[in-house]
Amino acid sequence: MSAPRGGYALVAPTASGGPMPDVVDLIISDHRELQRMFEVLRTDRSKRAAMAPVMSTLLFAHSRAEESEVYPRARDAGVEEDVEHSQKEHLVADQLAERLTGLDPESDEFGEVLDELVHAVTHHLEEEEETVLPHMRERMDADSLQQLGERFLAARAEHLGDQPDDMTRAELEQQARNLDLSRSTQRSKAELKDALEDEAEL
Ligand SMILES: [Fe+2]
Ligand SMILES: [Fe+2]
């Protein structure tokens, strides 16, 4: 599919018409958009205040949709280790995005946390594109990949605008399942949150 047009960030890629892209196309399209925003955030300080929340919103919705729809399906397709690793990287990215949101975009600290986030997420996107996504293309048929794309977009739309504090117990449990953490259902929400925080490899 064609690259997203400049300025589009949160509109579903199918809005422009054409054949329905599959889940891998949709995920890669989001990755390119995130990388475009990283570049602007790093190089144009005047856009930081306006663009940082847009970037965090897209990152948050993209990650939640991967966790609820894509990672469980990828686990079923036999890529458990890649999924566990990717899920840990989401936990790190969320922590960094939350820190960034609380900082003054004019401050030096914002620049430092931004660098950390861009470094961590760029690594994550590259790894996803080299491991989880090609394995899914190898192991799933075209119809399944397309249907999964529809579910990914629906979940992503549902999460646009959510804040980290809005994470439900069910979503935390899903993260724990993606990590193959045992006994997650016997824990309180706070215990689950602590256990997931311990898994974030900062
Ligand atoms: Fe991704
Ligand atoms: Fe991801």
Which structural traits does this protein have?
single chain; 202 residues; mainly alpha; 70% helix; disordered N terminus; binds fe (ii) ion
- Shape descriptor reads globular
Helix content: over 70%
| Relative strand content | under 5%
Amino-to-carboxy terminus distance: 35 Å
Helical/strand content category: mainly alpha
**Cofactors and ligands present?**
fe (ii) ion
Main sheet overview: none
How many beta strands in the DSSP annotation?
A: 0
Total helices: the number is 8
> What's the number of domains?
1
In N-to-C order, the SSE pattern is HHHHHHHH
Uncertain parts: 1-9
Detailed description of the structure:
The chain is mostly helical and 202 residues long. It has one domain. Helices cover 70% and strands 0% of the residues. It is built from eight helices and no strands. The chain has helices at 23-43, 48-76, 80-101, 108-130, 132-139, 142-159, 169-178, 189-199. The longest helix has 29 residues, at 48-76. The protein is globular. The chain starts with 22 loop residues before the first helix and ends with a helix. Residues 1-9 have low confidence and may be disordered. One fe (ii) ion (FE2) binds at residues 63, 66, 86, 90, 124, 128.
SSE topology:
Blueprint: H1 23-43, H2 48-76, H3 80-101, H4 108-130, H5 132-139, H6 142-159, H7 169-178, H8 189-199
Helix pairs in contact: 1-2, 1-4, 1-6, 2-3, 2-6, 2-7, 3-4, 4-5, 7-8
Bound molecules: fe (ii) ion (2 copies).
Characterize this entry briefly.
The protein has 202 residues and is mainly α. The protein contains eight helices and no strands.
